[in-house]
Design a protein that fits this description.
- By secondary structure, the chain is α/β, with parallel strands linked by helices.
- The chain has an eight-stranded parallel barrel with strand order 1-2-3-4-5-8-9-10, surrounded by five helices. Strands 6-7 form a two-stranded antiparallel ribbon.
- It is built from twelve helices and ten strands.
- It has a single domain, classed as Aldolase class I (TIM Barrel).
- The two termini are 24 Å apart.
- The radius of gyration is 18 Å and the shape is globular.
- Helix 2 packs parallel to helix 4, helix 2 runs parallel beside helix 12 and helix 5 runs parallel beside helix 6.
- 45% of the residues lie in helices and 16% in strands.
- Strand 4, helix 6 and strand 5 form a beta-alpha-beta unit.
- The chain binds ligand LLZGTKA7.
- Its EC number is 4.1.1.23.
- Belongs to the OMP decarboxylase family. Type 2 subfamily.
- This is Orotidine 5'-phosphate decarboxylase.
- It catalyses: orotidine 5'-phosphate + H(+) = UMP + CO2.
């Protein structure tokens, strides 16, 4: 999917919501455990209830890898379901990969060619040659951790290294990498006060922003400095939507929670017109 197609979808749906598909078998309605593939059945219902309100879906691969081969199969079925039934949505494999070049190339192949995700998250710690194999895939997007939502972000990312915070160096340096137009960045919603500085460095890039809802981040705070002319934001909520109810009505309630966020996004978009 091109960035322009994503932007068009945002204006059409009046939403820049990304629904996180972080499926924990201990949290889903018990009746689903009797089905052949509880994770996929859960995802299908969540997707069907929210697809008109969301422009992106983000399964975090940890939640699938934790269940071994069966979990990976559920991930495969989920992306196939999205690509077949809702081809307009942007799909993100939240896998946080990155390794020496030839290994990164295999990760990229796995997520872009085999699973056919539109994008994958990567960690920048191993540098340029660990990320460029992902960027080489045209029509795909590589979403690099910049300033994460967790407390540990202050351990390294905000540290001053030779006169500049590390996350700023990551943003600046990555702009010079080959095919850097395929880069997007992760910035936690809990770090909204850093967004003005971040937008000074990468005014045009899309940001994936997790941390709204369960982690306490706030949509309005993120939009204040995070939004750009193309909107440039995908705001993720996982637990706040998918586990809003653990009853038989879980999909309906997930739809209601997604609607609450979409309506706030619609107001922000209308004010921007
Ligand atoms: O900085 C980051 C990077 C990734 N995440 C991931 O996003 C979701 C957030 O889930 P919630 O339930 O909405 O808190 C999850 O998959 C994280 O691993 C993040 O939170 N922060």
């Amino acid at each position: 999917m091109t960035t322009q197609e994503l932007v068009d979808q945002i204006w059409k749906k009046k939403s820049f919501l990304c629904v996180g598909l972080d499926v924990d078998l201990n949290k889903i309605p018990k009746y689903l455990l009797d089905t052949e593939d509880p994770i996929f059945e859960f995802n299908k219902k969540i997707i069907d209830a929210t697809h008109h309100l969301a422009v992106a879906y983000k399964p975090n691969t940890a939640f699938y890898e934790a269940y071994g081969l069966k979990g990976w199969k559920s991930l495969e079925k989920t992306i196939e379901y999205l690509n077949t039934n809702y081809p307009e949505v942007f799909t993100i494999a939240d896998a946080k990969r990155g390794d020496i070049g030839n290994t990164s190339a295999m990760y990229a192949k796995a997520f872009f060619e085999d699973l056919e995700f539109d994008s994958v998250t990567v960690a920048p710690y191993m540098g340029k040659d660990s990320i460029e194999p992902f960027l080489a895939f045209q029509g795909k997007h590589t979403i690099m951790l910049a300033l994460t939502s967790n407390q540990g972000a202050f351990d390294f990312q905000t540290k001053n290294v030779e006169g500049r915070e590390l996350y700023k160096q990551v943003l600046e340096t990555s702009k010079g990498w080959q095919n850097s137009e395929n880069l997007m960045y992760v910035v936690g919603a809990t770090k909204a006060e850093f967004l003005a500085d971040i937008r000074n460095i990468i005014p045009d890039s899309f940001l994936l922003v997790p941390g709204v809802g369960a982690q306490g981040g706030n949509l309005q705070d993120v939009c204040k400095y995070g939004i750009n002319d193309q909107i440039g934001l995908l705001i993720n909520s996982s637990r706040g939507i998918i586990y809003a109810s653990d009853g038989l009505d879980f999909d309906t309630v997930a739809g209601e929670k997604a609607k609450e966020l979409q309506q706030q996004m619609q107001e922000i978009l209308e004010a921007k017109k």
